[in-house]
Structures are given as structure tokens and as C-alpha cells.
UniProtKB/TrEMBL annotation:
This is AhpC/TSA family protein. Residues 1-18 form the signal peptide. It comes from the Bacteria. GO terms for molecular function: antioxidant activity; oxidoreductase activity.
Amino acid sequence: MKKHLLGFLLLAPWLAQAQAPTPYTLKGKIGKLSAPAKVYMLRDGKFSDSTALTNGAFEFKGTVEAPQQVMLVLARDGKLKQALSNFQKADRTTTFLEKGPVMLTSADSLTTAKITGSKLTTEHQQLQTTLKPANDKMKALMADYRAASEEQRKSPEFMKQLDAREEAISAESKQHYLAFVKAHPGSPVSLGAVKQVGGSVPSYAEVAPLYESLAPAVRNSPEGKKYGEMLQAIKAVSIGAVAPNFTQQTPEGKKVSLADYRGKYVLVDFWASWCGPCRQENPNVTKVYNDYKAKNFDILGVSLDNEKAREKWLKAIQDDQLTWTQVSDLKGWQNEVAVQYHVQAIPQNFLVDPTGKIVATNLRGDDLRETLAKYIK
């Protein structure tokens, strides 16, 4: 399973246009539930607010800088951790904080609640309706993966089959997102759709034109500006750009620069010892390296481990038989090169040609071998 599941599970806040704080009132009536039952609100990426139910009723009030999407989770025993122990089965829903009031009503759960008073929620639900067939296929895929034996998961053929299904489902979802953005350029929900298309590792060439198709009011909203700034940041490390130079140290303390590799193809590979998908991909990278290391090709590994995990980093290098050069400043996610290259998820890599230009990004599995075969004869 390669790169799309994270975006399927995570919820990011989507903001729209507003010049002054917008008051909101979010009311709910879920059967006759009372304390210890609580409703928790995920806002700005954090569960920062909660309220108890009294005879089924609950209420959130406050202000937002602009209309904002939030996720609500019902914890019947009042414990959020328990309510989220199985995210797919959690009693949850999404709505928007906007000039309201917004009302959620259900006889038994948040998942089945009818939401009224929110124009943005209505638009979001329209999008989710079109996405449901693809989402159901993704849930089935994830169920098949969880049900697979350890032997099956180690089978290249089995994983390749799952990857092919995942790519097809993601392509189906993308078409629905693109259609929604085209039909609703003035909706902040479309900004969220653009983010979903981009995922955790956006392609500037693909996402920038889509972002520019949004109405000025959406692009100039707080979250719209923030996303636009992010796109400008990744432009500097997108395909066709000259890879920014950097220097970091090997485990032995030797300083190594990207400029040292000028004149050959080099894969700048971001990873970490604690990153499961990275470790799963390492055998593939090792095979490719062994096949191409004598053909004007090299790899420069950049670790996002921290100082406390130094020994784990060194052990992972040895265990995974990574014989190419490894560097790090051991600052974790704050690794200066990772920040410079706007790395938001790993594994992630950048293929740099002999002139120092980035010619491909985010290469994994067969894509890595096929891309190298294209450039290195």
C-alpha cells in the first residue's frame, strides 16, 4: 500500500473568505444520551473542544476567522481515545462552523445525523455522495489488506495487485474531485478537494493550475493563502527546478554536499528508521541501486531520525544493507534539508540529473526502476 491511504484517513481544516470573526452556533440532538457521553470537536488539526450531552442535546458556540470544516466524534463513555480506537468505525461526522445556526439531529448517532443550516456542509455532502463508490472500494481494499496473512503481505505479487487496485481507486476519486472543483470554483469545499488531489506530496505541475482555477475569494482566504504559499515553496523543488544544494554529515562526521554528485544521476532519498513504509521500500531501492550503481547513478540518503534515535538509525542502515552514503542533522522532522525540500511525508525522493536539475520525484516500486531505465541507458 503506497501513498494514498493517509489522505483517505486524515481531515484537514478548510477555511473560506471572511474579513472579521464569524460567530457560529453548532447545536445537536442525539437521541436521549447524557453524561458521561461527550462530543469532541477536531478543529485546526486538534481535538481542542468538547461538550457533554444532556438528554441528547449538546452545543458549541464561538467565533472563527472564516468558515471552517470540523470533525465531530461521539464518545459514549466520554473517552475520546476509546471512541477513536477504530477510526473507520468511530461515530463521527463532519460539518462547518459558519454563520448559522447549524443543527445536527439523529435518533442514535452522529454518523446518521441530519445536518441543516449549513450551505457548506450541503456542498460537502454532495461531494461525498459522488465519492462514496470509490471510498467503499478503498475500505474493501483496506479490509483485504488487514485480513491478509503475513506471508501474503510479504508476497510481491499480492502487494502489486493491491497497489494496482489502489491506483485505480485513487484515479477514480481524483476525477470526482476535479469535477467538483470545476463546478464549484467559488466554494471553500473546492479548496479541500484541491488538497485531496495534491495529497501529502503534491505535484506542483498538477496542483498549481487546479489551485489557480479557484475563485479569488477562495484563494485569498486565510487557508487559501496558506496553501498557495505552500505551492510556491514546493515549486522550488518541483520537476524542472535546479535541486537546492545542501550539506550534512555522515554518521562518521564527514560533510557531504549534493554538489559533490554533480555529473551523475543521484536519488536524494528521505527516510527514517522509524518509518515503516520507508523500511518496506528499502529492499526495492537496494536492488535498483545494485543494478545501476556502475552506470553513473548514486543515492544520497537523508534521515529524519533525531539525536535520541541515532543508534536506531545506524542499526537500520546495517539491517537494511544501505550501502550508499547516509547523512542527517538528527533533528527529526526539523531536518534542515527536509524543511528546505518541503518534505511533509516519507518516504519521499528526488531524482537529480547530472546538471543538477530535478527530473522526477516520489519514485517507488516499479516506478523507480522504470524511470531510471528511461534516463540511464
